[in-house]
Amino acid sequence: MKILNIIMVGSLLTLAACSAKKGDKGDDQHVKTELQTVDNAVTVMNLQPRDFNYELISNGKITASRYADLVFSSSGIVSRVYVKDGDHVGKGQAVAQLNLFMLRHSLAESRTSLEQAKLELQDFLIGQGYSADKLASVPKEVMRLARIKSGYDRSLSDLEITRYNIANATLRAPFAGVIANVKSKANNMTSADPVCRVISTCGMEVQFSVLENELRVISKGEDVEIRGFADGAHMVKGHVTEINPIVDDNGLVSVKARIDDGASFISGMNVRVSVEKRMLHQLVIPKTAVVQRSGRQVVFTLEDGQAYWNYVQTGVENMNEYTVTDGLQAGAKVIVTGNRNLSHGSPVQVIKDKK
Q: How far apart are CA 193 and CA 85, in angstroms?
């Protein structure tokens, strides 16, 4: 019986030893699997100069390049106002009119004053020994003094002003346009404020801002497209007329563009302005190729199976791409995907060579 127990204990020890050896072999294989390194899978492109379709988009505001605030030349009671906000008027069309009674009364008084001044002028010259029917022979200096002393020049000036006020008692549109800001009412006295504003619809402009680094792609005469926010499908064209040569505190430059057909816009309307330009022979990379490292733009390039990082300076951009102005040379193998976790010298494996 003792012999049988000894045999069983020996068998158990042998089985335990075999199991331990088998377990050790499995652990070794697992460690080897964990330690095995796999290269980063990336996509690369061969950087070569090509044309770049640049699109500048900015928000702008419609302004009228031509408008006039209409004001009566004299005070008085407003007799009639012929227009209201939003009315379209033609050149020379009556807009408002003053009550003419007081102006006509002033005209009669001015004429009487002038006749009286003329008589006083003649009396003064006769008193100086000149004949009333030979006033043309009076010396210029004597005549000048006589006109001043008799009040003739002042009365003549008053008559001219009264005639001017009567001629302008009816306000008329200086050009065709639309009426805005009507403030005067009939049967009320005139005020210092304009009666209304006439805005020409034939000279609408859009004012918008661009970044200073975008000035390289915009110039006078450049075509622009304008779309209203309310109806983005409706587009009209225009062209750049002014570029303010001052950069403001926000790094923006003010630009104005003339609208070819501004009838569909009104002054003060907010719009979207876009400028499309084809830039020749540019180094262009996808936006996916650019990563941020310590607040700077970095692009990885492929050299001998490893990733090398390059600090770059990008220029203008569109929806998917940048132009590169510094940091890369033509012919470089640029890593465009799989670059988020790379570091300088990381081994990589190219899965696709993008043309």
A: 16
Burial level of 176, CB count in 10 A (0-12/13-18/19+)?
Answer: middle
Phi, psi of 312 (to 5 degrees): -125, 160
Report the candidate in 236, 329, 300 with the shortest Cα–Cα distance to residue 274: 236
How do strand 40-46 and strand 348-354 relate by DSSP bridges? parallel
**Tokens 């009209």, residue?**
236
Q: Which residues of 276-309 are buried (b: 16+ CB within 10 A; e: fewer)?
A: ebebeebbbbeeebbbeeeeebbbbbbeeeebbb
Distance CA 188, CA 78 (A): 6
Q: Note whether 98 and 74 are within 8 A (CB).
A: yes
Helical (H) or strand (E) element with 155: helix 152-167
Q: What three-state secondary structure class fits 35?
A: helix
Torsion 249-255-256-262 (CA) sign: negative
DSSP 28: H
pLDDT tens across 43-76, in order? 999 999 999 988 888 999 999 888 999 999 889 9
Please report the DSSP string for 240-274 in residue order.
EEEE-S---TTSEEEEEEEES--TT--TT-EEEEE
Closest CA to 329 of 283, 291, 292: 283
Alpha helix stretches (DSSP H) within 65-151: 101-127, 140-150
| pTM assigned to the model | 0.56
The tokens describing 85, both together, are 């906000």
DSSP state of 319: S
Secondary structure of residue 150 in the 3-state scheme: helix
